[in-house]
Amino acid sequence: MPAKKRTRTYDPAKIRAAVFAQFGHVRRAVSTLTADQLALPTRLGEWTVRDLAAHITMAVETVSRNIERDEPARPELTLLDWPFATAARAADIADGTRALAEAHPDLDALYARTEERLAERLADAPGTRLLAARTGAMVLDDYLVTRTVELVVHTDDLNAAVPGLAVPFDKQALAACTRLLADALAAKAPGGATEVRIPPYAVVQCLEGPRHTRGTPPNVVETGPLTWIRLATGRLTWADALEAAQVSASGERADLSGLLPLMG
Q1: Which of 96, 141, 159, 229 measures 20 to 30 Å from 209, CA to CA?
Q2: What is the model's pLDDT at position 7?
Q3: Of 57, 58, 67, 54, nearest in space to 133 by CA
């Protein structure tokens, strides 16, 4: 039997720093937006840029709020479970986002308060603490890795919505986001027939079939981190990515269209 793959681990200190860094990048960018820019549409249904900007604070505030809640008795979700548990909450999130945007016309004040609360709550919260997250109880260190996904994905949404905005991506946040979504693919379709390369951050194998051991694998998919993240979250279709030459796929088992997106 092949050896069971070890679950990837993340450096908790680097993940915490990455969450603050990416949130800081977004906060600075949002503070520069004009009323006209805040009113622009996004690729997220009916959300405006203002709605999206408010939602990004929700993705971080949930850490503080969950730390304040009673600690659950046992974990319910592993890190690799999380991407597949998010779809059920989409409607609640949309309603909460619009209400938050309406209640906080001063976005910079909202961002400042969110960042301050996160720093205060994390100061003495051990990484092993369980959080009563709405998707399911999770260990704090794992939950913070999921925040890099939220922040990176929505940073990309902001950049797509506002011409010329170009909010930067923290390297550690981008790496963690890429790796978690790559590992989720391998968990969804376990196997060793196809190698998925997302340089410089991740290489995973997936899909059942003849296992590759030496030399160049017969089935290879390669793409960049942001393209992978867009594919995994439904921002980009497999067909469009191929047509635009944003992904290369060689081999008869290199079609991932039936597995994507991984999360909505």
Answers
A1: 229
A2: 83
A3: 67
Query: Does residue 261 have a cis peptide bond before it, meaning omega lies within 30 degrees of 0?
Result: yes
Buried b (16+ CB within 10 A) or exposed e, 231-250: bbbebbebeebeeeebbebe
Residue 199 near residue 175, CB atoms below 8 Å: no
Q: Are 143 and 66 in contact (CB under 8 A)?
A: yes
| Residues 260, 231 contacting (CB under 8 angstroms) | yes
Q: For 165-195, what is each residue's pLDDT tens digit? A: 999 999 999 999 999 999 999 999 999 999 9
- How far is the C-alpha of 82 from the C-alpha of 87, rounded, in Å? 10
Res 92: pLDDT: 65
Query: CA–CA distance from 42 to each of 27, 37, 45, 91, 154 (Å)?
Result: 18, 11, 7, 17, 10
State the Cα angle at 141 between 136 and 147, rounded to 5°. Answer: 70
Q: Are 171 and 152 in contact (CB under 8 A)?
A: no
172's tokens? 């550690």
